[in-house]
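[job 0412] stage=complex_fold ligand=nicotinamide-adenine-dinucleotide status=START
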Amino acid sequence: MTTRHTVAVLGGGSFGTVIGNIIANNGHSVRLWLRNDGLAATINSSRENSVYLPGYHLSDRLYATTSLRESVADADIVFVAVPGKSFREVVQQLPRMISGDSQVISLTKGIEPGGFRLMSQILREELPDNPLGVLSGPNLASEIALGHVSASVIASESPSVTRCIHDLLHCEAFLIYASDDMYGVELGGALKNVYAILAGVGAALGFGENTQGMLLTRALAEMSRFAVCLGANPLTFLGLSGVGDLFVTCSSPLSRNYQVGLALGKGRPLEDILATMDQVAEGINTLGLLKREADSRGVPMPLVDGLHAILYEHREVEDVLTSIMHREQAQDVEFVIR
Ligand SMILES: NC(=O)c1ccc[n+]([C@@H]2O[C@H](COP(=O)([O-])OP(=O)(O)OC[C@H]3O[C@@H](n4cnc5c(N)ncnc54)[C@H](O)[C@@H]3O)[C@@H](O)[C@H]2O)c1
Ligand SMILES: O=P(O)(O)OC[C@H](O)CO
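[job 0412] stage=complex_fold status=DONE, emitting structure tokens
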């Protein structure tokens, strides 16, 4: 007999909502935690998250609340889908609210500001006894909401977590695969955001598909090289949460990170772009943290350096991209990690 779970999803933005609804449609009871009273009431009455996913019907088994305590009460599985910069302030409230047996899964594709902490590291620090995992893959929330077949990876050191989350989420239109490489899976999700900004800049400048293909391949080499230094398995980057997510985010106008790059390439100032965005583009935060960490570890990341120069060193976009594209050092074009 199928186990029925009580699940909390923390963060009522586009991804939290769509993941919560998949789980509810699979027959489980879901509580979605968000901070906006009006939106919670609308979700419960109209069965729609009109701010983030208008027109997407939500299951009766999904209930929205602005009480964190109510959302996690009796939950045996807790998903966290808030931006990386708010992740710790949310999860550090959980130890006094959930049992040590509850599984806690990060959906966030960001890095904590002020250091270089991954979401799984924050979970381990704040919830040392709970089983934990991360979910990541080529998962544009709005496409999942439209029913396009999508796939994602649940990564955990615990095989019972990967099995449980697979069974919870897997369905005809959302396929779940498992990995034990947590760092590799979450670094793929966080780092590709930076390259999606660069791809958006390239699109605004009229790069051809050949050029974008070269950019993507070099991005893959660069991000894998960095991730291996942090203990990730390079082969993870050949899968869904690596090249799969890099491809979708670097080529889709639905990606918020790509949209930021597109606007930058058209000459809009970053502050102006961010002031008018109502959803998170994690790549902006990740860029500075990644550059500092790569520099301190001595990992060459010319694409990251180039984007950083455009955003924070007042360099001309065309000049930087021209110099990035004409680099000839062999290590930038090889996928094999040396
Ligand atoms: N949208 C996608 O397609 C997608 C897919 C996969 C992963 N992700 C990742 O999931 C995470 C969330 O993304 P999203 O698309 O849902 O973002 P979003 O901008 O649509 O929503 C973020 C939500 O978090 C809430 N929030 C922000 N700070 C908070 C805080 N301190 N406390 C409580 N709530 C807070 C916001 O109010 C909003 O409801 C990001 O790391 C993103 O990279 C997104
Ligand atoms: O909209 P973005 O750029 O945050 O990307 C969303 C997902 O991470 C794509 O997998």
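The CA atoms of residues 13 and 278 lie 10 Å apart.
[job 0412] exit 0
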